[in-house]
């Protein structure tokens, strides 16, 4: 608790954003009614999303020196950099929910199980929402003796689930740690936290910055538009790769999730070279079509200084991969 109280983000028993942020709860029931009664044809794909299944033997014993990313769906991914391998925001269960029988359900199964995970050098979490922090996945991973790197307070959830204290490492914004030759910084985000009715903003949320000897990678976590992008870009950019939350946006929570247009501005502020969009294509969490983030970003990137990449779920994307990455989601929209 002392570490929480010493944080500049902690005030009156709660964490807060640097930029004043409205997280609307008054419109929650209105949104739920719209969600349950809307007649969108494209709530979920009408064709099967292509998935590249993975097992432990598909990964090299020594992780890649240049960045290599495996998107596992939504905001979950494996990142290799400087011969280290990290698992970020792993949600491998069927639902992103406090219940296993109701709540947002995956369009497709995760491409890899916890049991088939390769050797990992750490698990990194951006915040405690159910679509980023999956209790069953965490419990199973913890039994492998892995270390978890978390924003302030998030370790309290894992401790309740039985994860040993010496496996938990919490950080405030702008704090950092080293894993081998990879320098990892806990960086700002504009969001909120809570897994129940009474714990709103009891834990911190964050983005993460990974600095290798020759390459730099940024992961946004969940965030709205913020001046923090420029601050991160100035301090740590340019970034060879950004993994950006672009999806599940809505006018009712416009300050805590990025719209595609905002993600494009953030990419410029971060001085990002390649963007892989995350937080879409796996769960139906908003009122836009499942493919809308991808199509809007494609248009926004046409004359940009950066490029988009859309690896298939489970498919490796590397720094040396060709610029003509196929946009696999387009084939699913053809009649």
TrEMBL record:
Q: Name the species this protein comes from.
A: Rapidithrix thailandica
User: Which domain of life does the UniProt lineage start with?
Assistant: Bacteria
Q: Which Pfam families does the record associate with it?
A: Lactamase_B_2
InterPro entries given in the database record: Metallo-B-lactamas, NAPE-PLD, RibonucZ/Hydroxyglut_hydro
Please report the name of this protein according to its UniProt entry: MBL fold metallo-hydrolase
Q: Care to name a GO molecular-function term for this sequence?
A: N-acylphosphatidylethanolamine-specific phospholipase D activity
Question: Which SUPFAM superfamilies does the annotation name?
Answer: Metallo-hydrolase/oxidoreductase
GO annotation, cellular component aspect: cytoplasm
Residues of the Metallo-beta-lactamase domain: 85-280
């Amino acid at each position: 608790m002392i570490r929480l109280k010493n944080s500049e983000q902690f005030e009156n028993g709660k964490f807060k954003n640097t930029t004043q942020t409205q997280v609307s709860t008054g419109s929650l029931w209105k949104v739920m009614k719209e969600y349950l009664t809307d007649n969108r044809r494209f709530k979920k794909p009408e064709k099967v999303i292509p998935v590249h299944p993975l097992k432990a033997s598909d990964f090299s014993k020594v992780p890649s020196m240049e960045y290599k990313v495996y998107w596992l769906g939504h905001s979950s991914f494996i990142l290799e950099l400087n011969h280290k391998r990290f698992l970020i925001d792993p949600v491998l269960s069927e639902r992103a929910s406090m219940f296993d029988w109701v709540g947002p359900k995956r369009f497709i199964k995760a491409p890899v199980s916890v049991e088939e995970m390769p050797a990992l050098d750490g698990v990194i979490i951006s915040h405690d929402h159910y679509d980023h922090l999956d209790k069953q996945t965490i419990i199973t991973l913890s039994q492998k003796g892995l270390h978890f790197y978390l924003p302030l307070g998030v370790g309290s959830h894992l401790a309740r689930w039985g994860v040993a204290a010496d496996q938990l490492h919490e950080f405030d914004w702008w704090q950092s740690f080293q894993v081998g030759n990879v320098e990892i910084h806990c960086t700002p985000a504009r969001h909120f936290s809570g897994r129940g009715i009474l714990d709103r903003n009891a834990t911190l949320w964050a983005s993460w910055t990974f600095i290798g000897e020759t390459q730099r990678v940024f992961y946004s976590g969940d965030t709205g538009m913020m001046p923090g992008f420029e601050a991160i870009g100035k301090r740590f950019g340019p970034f060879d790769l950004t993994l950006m939350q672009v999806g599940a946006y809505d006018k009712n929570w416009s300050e805590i999730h990025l719209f595609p247009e905002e993600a494009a501005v953030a990419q410029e502020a971060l001085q990002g070279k390649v963007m892989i969009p995350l937080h879409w294509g796996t769960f139906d969490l908003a009122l836009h079509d499942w493919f809308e983030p991808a199509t809007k970003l494609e248009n926004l990137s046409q004359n940009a200084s950066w490029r988009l990449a859309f690896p298939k779920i489970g498919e490796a994307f590397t720094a040396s991969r060709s610029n003509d990455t196929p946009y696999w989601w387009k084939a699913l929209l053809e009649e």
